[in-house]
């Protein structure tokens, strides 16, 4: 190697090449070093030219929403209202004026009732059409401590149903829109605005006391199923009084709106999904809800699917504002969310003040469920006897609540075969496996029956089904047409999905 270098350096041509390479490296390094030094000098010069930002500098002025000061500029009326509200919250507001403003409520609720309302703390989760009307009504009625929770902003399409939003509020967080407008009506009220999404993970903080006072009531005005279930489950488990608004979308008949227990709410897809999810979490009743019994029909509004061109763009989930939020178009008549919201506020006012109220009760069908449970018990005993099992004292792992759930939620109170709604009973759909009775515990015999194995029929249909399928050699496909079989399979598949929550 050394001899090769020696011969190379002895060549004049090689010496010239070496000199050129070394010179190029030196010149390049010098250029790069100069450019780097010049960049450093310019950055230092730019930093030196930036003045210190004082407290009065325009860059420090942002709005209460965290936006640039010119984004949501306050009008003169807003400025006056904000100043008045700030003084009122400090006590610089004549109480006689407040009582005069609340005079009609005062004579209705009495001084004691109004005092309860004025000292109440209410949390409203969801500040759209329903929540905004509920909040406005509560503030106008005397509630002085309100926490508003909503992640969303006012849009142009919000204006057909929002209680207080104006064109100037488009793009503003809903919680601040409500606060800003209601401060012009009830300046003494205290609003704790949370521009955030409610979630199970943050529930402890979002539903926490205000200045040491636990919430007297929580209002659920959420239209997302996951958040709604999380809120209602948290309130039920932590014994917080709550009322929930079910779906106002696609509804138009105000005479069909009721207030009742969640276990009795019907004819509403949102209510059905909420009930089933809550039941899987161990909450089956005890939550008042506002719901509509209006049924869909020809010519009525329906939940609109996304246009085909939107599906063609790719993942539909990416079109939502947030993950798992609906992206379909929900037709809403602007009056209906207002009626739902006012009904919610009315219930909260009556409950807090102790004013007597007795809503139209839902029909009790407990006696019918007991009869169906007894008939199912008899069917299982007869089946066990036909298989040679000891059937006396056979137990089935179902309760009256389970029966009610299957009848109302899964089969909607109608026979899966004929659609009739009278003389109903539950029965196995398929012939059970050989070992369908558990004898492992001495002196105790249990049927291994599962809810997903049952169908709803009339008594006459069940008698024939028991004879030919459960005790005979036929299968359901031999007795029923394809439509009935497909419906049963769909119901069982759906119930199997919900079974994992139990």
UniProtKB/TrEMBL annotation:
UniProt-listed Gene3D superfamilies: NAD(P)-binding Rossmann-like Domain
Domain of life according to the entry: Eukaryota
Subcellular localization, as worded in the UniProt entry: Mitochondrion outer membrane
Topology within the bilayer: Multi-pass membrane protein
Example GO biological process: cyclic threonylcarbamoyladenosine biosynthetic process
Residue span(s) of domain THIF-type NAD/FAD binding fold: 104-358
Record's function text: Catalyzes the ATP-dependent dehydration of threonylcarbamoyladenosine at position 37 (t(6)A37) to form cyclic t(6)A37 (ct(6)A37) in tRNAs that read codons beginning with adenine.
Annotated protein name in UniProt: THIF-type NAD/FAD binding fold domain-containing protein
Phylogenetic classification of the source organism: Eukaryota, Fungi, Dikarya, Ascomycota, Pezizomycotina
């Amino acid at each position: 190697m050394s001899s090769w270098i020696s011969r190379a350096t002895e060549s004049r041509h090689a010496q010239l090449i070496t000199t050129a390479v070394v010179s190029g490296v030196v010149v390049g390094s010098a250029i790069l070093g100069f450019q780097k030094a010049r960049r450093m000098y310019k950055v230092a010069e730019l930093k030196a030219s930036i003045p210190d930002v004082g407290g009065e500098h325009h860059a420090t002025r942002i709005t209460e929403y965290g936006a640039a000061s010119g984004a949501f500029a306050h009008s003169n009326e807003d400025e006056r209202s904000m100043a008045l509200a700030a003084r009122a919250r400090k006590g610089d507001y004549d109480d006689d004026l407040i009582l005069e403003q609340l005079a009609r409520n005062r004579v209705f609720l009495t001084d004691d009732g109004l005092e309860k309302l004025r000292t109440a703390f209410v949390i409203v989760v969801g500040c759209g059409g329903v929540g905004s009307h509920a909040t406005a009504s509560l503030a106008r009625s005397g509630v002085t401590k309100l926490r508003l929770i909503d992640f969303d902003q006012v849009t142009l399409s919000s204006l057909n149903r929002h209680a207080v939003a104006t064109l100037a509020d488009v793009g503003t967080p809903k919680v601040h829109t409500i606060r800003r407008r209601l401060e012009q009506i009830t300046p003494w009220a205290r609003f704790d605005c949370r521009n955030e999404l409610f979630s199970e993970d943050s529930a402890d903080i979002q539903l926490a006391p205000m200045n040491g006072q636990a919430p007297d009531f929580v209002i659920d005005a959420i239209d997302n199923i996951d958040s709604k279930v999380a809120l209602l489950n948290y309130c039920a488990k932590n014994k917080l009084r709550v009322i929930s608004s079910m779906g106002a979308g696609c509804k138009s008949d105000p005479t069909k709106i009721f207030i009742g227990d969640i276990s009795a709410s019907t004819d509403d897809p949102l209510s059905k999904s909420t009930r089933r999810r809550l039941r899987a979490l161990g909450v089956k009743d005890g939550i008042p809800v506002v719901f509509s019994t209006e049924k869909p029909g020809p010519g009525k509004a329906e939940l609109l699917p996304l246009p085909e061109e939107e599906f063609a763009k790719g993942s539909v989930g990416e079109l939502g504002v947030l993950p798992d939020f609906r992206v379909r178009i929900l037709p809403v008549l602007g009056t209906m969310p207002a009626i739902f919201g006012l009904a919610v506020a009315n219930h909260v006012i009556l409950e807090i003040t102790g004013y007597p109220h007795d809503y139209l009760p839902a029909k009790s069908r407990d006696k019918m469920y007991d009869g169906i449970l007894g008939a199912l018990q008899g069917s299982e005993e007869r089946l066990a006897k036909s298989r040679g099992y000891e059937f006396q004292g056979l137990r089935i792992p179902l309760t009256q609540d389970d029966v009610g759930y299957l009848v109302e939620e899964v089969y909607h109170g109608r026979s899966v075969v004929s659609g009739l709604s009278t003389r109903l009973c539950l029965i196995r759909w398929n012939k059970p496996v050989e070992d369908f009775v558990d004898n492992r515990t001495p002196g105790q015999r249990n049927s291994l029956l599962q809810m997903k194995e049952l169908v709803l029929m009339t008594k006459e249909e069940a008698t024939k089904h028991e004879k030919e399928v459960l005790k005979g050699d036929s299968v359901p496909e031999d007795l029923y047409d394809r439509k009935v079989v497909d419906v049963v399979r769909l119901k069982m598949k759906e119930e199997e999905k919900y079974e994992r929550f139990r």
